[in-house]
Amino acid sequence: MDTAEDLRRTLRRIDGKGYKAYKDIKGCYRFERFTLCIDHVQGDPFAAPSRVHIEVDAETAGFPRWTYEPSDGAGGGRSREIAARDYITRRFAQAARRISAGHRGTGKGGIIEIDRPGQEVLERTSAFIGERGVEIRFFVGLPAFGRKIAGPHAEAMLLEEVPEIVAEAAFFAALDEEDLQRHVEVVEDADALRSRLPELGLVAFVADGAILPRRSGIDQRPMASGEAVAFESPASLRLEVELPNRGQISGLGIGTGVTLIVGGGYHGKSTLLSAVERGVYDHVPGDGRELVVSDPSASSIRAEDGRRIEKTCITPFISGLPGGRDTDAFSSDDASGSTSQAANIIEGLEAGAKVLLIDEDTSATNFMIRDHRMQELIHDRDEPITPFIDKVRLMHEELGVSTILVLGGSGDYFDVADRVIAMRDYRPVEVTSEARDIAARFRTDRRPEGGETFGPRSTRAPEPQSIDPRKGKREIKLTPRGTSTLGFGTYTVDLSAVSQIVDPSQTRAIGWALARLASRADGRRTVAELVAETEEVVREEGLDALTGRPASDLAAFRGLELAAALNRLRSLSVARRV
User: Fold this and answer.
1) Across 418-490, where does the E strand assignment appear?
2) Which candidate, 141, 126, 135, 48, places its Cα nearest to that of 93?
């Protein structure tokens, strides 16, 4: 294997030459304590930065087993490993920001970057740890002036800055042991708590003392200390749970069935639901939501005007449309609020959702409720929509699907709720008995609609030619833009309503998963089967299986979000299977 000095000599030899001469440095180089591998060299200074990784053997890295193996009583799993990988990534990112001199020369020259995590702790392809040691994958913008190689700058980056950054992130002795231990234990506790939800009969748990409010709609960090009210569960719904590291904790247990979160405006209803929505993921210590966990299949549902729908059976909610339009296989290029919300529920169930999270503020009013007076004015035969209120209990009783609803304006839901939680000055109070008393005293006299069963359901099998990632000469062309948009082949997938995509690297991974799914669709395998097979491959082989090569910037996603992206692909065509 070549050495660091060989790399230095090559950089000095190609200094001032055309940019393509950088290809000469591709390969692996032995440094004093690690190996540096330059895996892919960018074609010009304006292209995506070069892909690089380092490897440190286990003995040199010095990480004890507790950093990546589960503790006693944690029930196995990979919580600690994923948390330690996340911690290493964050340490590398911090060191790179401080040590790297930044942009030098033309284009993206001079940058040293790694996939940067947010508040969630997600499995990523940026760092790995285990019995074989540590691997860290990152990006380097090879510097140039114009299109001439800036050798001395590249030498400073690769032979001075990178080793200094690596020294702060890849060796256990350089880390704050207490801080690392807290990081892995917080994640392990959250996963242990989430795994216990079924045995406790819960769909979500919100720990006492949690800080739920965020700084803003675009800043997921916790609200500044002193401004936020710490969460305190009502005694009637408080549970105590033993965790492997934290020990005994208490908090609000939200049971299966239909739960209403009610209260006046600005009292914290939507904030609580948002925390539950993000509770499908683990969070970093200090986030405030470390022990807010939800059923892994919880799915946020909202109206989505203008989305495309492809042969989705929305008949349980919408039937008898004017003109005889088929609702057993409903299609639209520009869905309304009610049809899009119906489709979002049905497609969520198809992908395996067992908990629905719904806020009336982001719902279609006519989809959620039709009161007695409106029933009297508009006869059933003239109204194609069966409101959600008449299906929510049937979904639980027939399909085992629970719902958490935020409501501020419709007391009719008191009739179908298992529990009602009122938010008052950001504190929850159970008001189930009061709500039932009100429901008994003030009858709505509205008639249940939509029949005594949930209604028909069908499955859909994607046609392979309709999922095409190609563009021009590129076999796979993906352009992720944040968490809201994915360029896929010649199409743009709008993911702005898929609120549980929380990291741009998830968007990128979903794009690769769609491309892989396209190669396995045959017009017979269903959406659920294709999504489940993709999840299984990632579980067994890791996220690299999606790209077929080592990737540096992918983050784990759920099958629900993969299915949501597939359903929003405007070219999608499916064969319907009853």
Assistant:
1) 419-424, 427-430, 459-462, 478-481, 485-488
2) 126
Q: Answer yes or no: are the C-beta atoms of 133 and 56 closer than 8 Å.
A: yes
CA atoms of 260 and 266, how far apart (whole Å): 16
- At 226 the three-state DSSP class reads coil
The sign of the torsion formed by the CA atoms of 564, 570, 575, 576 equals positive
The β-bridge relationship of strands 133-140 and 127-130 is antiparallel
Name residue 219's beta-bridge partners. Answer: 216
Alpha-carbon span 524 to 509, nearest angstrom: 25
Q: How many CB atoms lie within 10 A of CB 519?
A: 10
At residue 14, the 3 state secondary structure works out as helix
Q: Which of 361, 448, 472 is nearest to 410 (CA)?
A: 361
**Tens digit of each residue's pLDDT (9 = 90 or more) over 498-533:** 999 999 999 999 999 999 999 999 999 999 999 999
CA distance 23 to 13: 13
Q: What is the mean pLDDT of residues 542-555?
A: 97
The backbone region for 275, taken as left when phi is positive above 0, alpha when psi lies in -120 to 50, beta otherwise, is alpha
Q: Using CB atoms within 10 Å of the CB of residue 120, give its burial: 0 to 12 exposed, 13 to 18 middle, 19+ buried.
A: buried
Contact 112, 96 (CB under 8 A): yes
Q: Alpha helix locations (H) across 351-501?
A: 365-368, 372-377, 392-399, 432-441
Nearest to 455 by CA among 306, 345, 364: 345
pLDDT value of residue 578: 63
Quick one: tokens of 317? Answer: 């909610």
Task: Give the integer Cα–Cα distance in Å for 565 and 338.
Answer: 20
| Cα–Cα nearest to 459, from 358, 533, 563, 565 | 563
pLDDT at 244 over 90: yes
- CA 221 to chain CA mean position, Å: 16
